[in-house]
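Help! Submission page says 'invalid entity' but I think these are all valid:
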Amino acid sequence: MSALLEIKNLHVSVGETEILKGLNLSISAGEVHAIMGPNGSGKSTLSYVLAGRDGYEITQGDILLNGVSLAEMNPEDRAIAGLFLAFQYPLEIPGVTNMTFLKTSVNAVRRGRGEDEMDAASFLRFVRDKAKALRLDDDMLKRPLNVGFSGGEKKRNEILQMSVLEPTMAILDETDSGLDIDALKTVAEGVSAMRDAQRGMLVITHYQRLLDYIKPDIVHILAGGQIVKTGSPELALELEKSGYADYIGEVVA
Amino acid sequence: MEAMSSFNSLFNSMQQEAKDIFAAQGWPNKRNEDWHYTDLSARLPASFQNQPLELSEDVPLENLTCGVDDATQLTFINGLLSDVEDLPEGLTIDALIAHPELVKQSDDDMTDPLLYSNLAHLETGIVIDVTGVIDRPLEIHFHNTAAEEASFVRIIFRLAAGASLTLLESHSGWGHTQLVSDIYQAEDSMLRHLRLHQAEDTQVSLLLNRVSLDAQAHYHNVAVSLSGGLGRLETRVTFNAPGSHAGLATALLSGGKQHIDVTTRLNHLSPDTTSDTVARTILDDEACGIFQGKVIVHEDAQRVEATQKSDALMLSTEAMMNVKPELEIYADDVACAHGSAIGEIDHEALFFLRSRGIGETAARVMLVEGFIAEILGRLDDFAAGATLQENLSKRVETYLKKSA
């Protein structure tokens, strides 16, 4: 069976600097993978290049989602194709209410997928149910998107977006950063609730902590722009003890 | 009758004086400090064919007015009051020519180009008295039907003590429109004033708004400009007594070769008065935007609070924004602040929205709408505020999608 997400020999440069240097990764539907790595290893570059941000140039290799190349696709079409990136630093957008944003987003994706748009009343019910599960109250739906939200609220709001967009492939970029333990648990519950046999997830993190709550099937270590080790969840625990020092030299050597 | 004819001669002599001044001075040029960024002498004809055009048919104004069904509608076509609906109780309209003292009071400064040029060419002058709390909005719509039409109107509003009104002023069409609105607000009166400027791209609008506030009088102005050719939206407020307040909020969307100038002058004569001014300007193509905001706090005007903020969003590298904030403060116990920012679309925010499936154009429109949302939000307290916000949001969206 072919993989849901297939990253093949991916080389990515930002300006003159090559950040990813031949990264290979294959995620099947139903699997949760974790990528761990030290600062500067290329974690954020990987998440941005997957989502299609400007300025990240693929110089070699390819990214396939359900067998279709994302390399030349713009960010909105990737979302329609089923990709979702939960941002490490969600943006604040003054003057646009969370609800307006969510509705525009969901309907844009539904249109793109050839589905009917949701009317205002059914969308309201739909989003309220999802928000409740993440302990986001109605007030936060009425406020401008992420403006004045705490770190935890922003991250829960990212998960809310994920749950209304129902992606087939979700990437979580350092979703644990800036969260206290209670917020972390709520976020992890929200993510875990979305695990199912049709969906793949890639959890990108510096620390093992998040993986106590979102248990991955497979753990990879990213260093120097390549996956240098792949293993079972125990690999994350090992790292927690011994740190990244063993891996930092590996690619250079 | 005798009084009337003596007034007519007074009016005629004042108008003749204005004509003489206009003939000698003409339009201001950039050596005039108030007109430095908007040189009218270089942009406007030295004289006008001042015959209102005959209308052969009804002018369709749907989608040009503010679109509030229950508003009382006054319509000026080519400078002439063409249509007056039944007026609600507490609202009366009279000809300016019946009020000699008001013309004198209104034309107190014949060195002011906007005043002498208006009086020299004046076609219609009316006085609107508001004596009660009026629930229905009053809409005054101005429309010129042709490029060669120039219309000159003076309106004097008098709000009695405790009176309140939502005034919707809208402008559309071609040619040249010059309006002087003098607003006198007695104590405890409230005027909510929306000014919607949605004209063709060759149109000229010179709109002067002068507001005089007594104790506890509140004036709330929201101005929204969607295109037009050359525009000067000028508002001057005088705070005569404690407790008076003015809020001026402007949202400008300009493109093409439009030149739009927002000038405000807040004159705090009295202590314990407050004002807040906020302008959001969006410039595309080769448009030029100007914000000149002046706050004057007189020596005895202690405990004045005045804030002023101008932000501009540049959608094109060919567009230009000029900002001139001025504070003149002669009292020592005041809280005054001004700030301005000029920036581009936030590319990170754009990527964020696109990553959620929202197409690039729609994402840009969303960010631009977000930039002026606070201004439209101020219509909350207006009569028919929800309808106004909905209508204006749609117009803004249509405008942005057309120009995207």
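Support: the input was valid. A stray whitespace character was the problem, and the output above is from the cleaned input. Chain B has seven helices and 19 strands.
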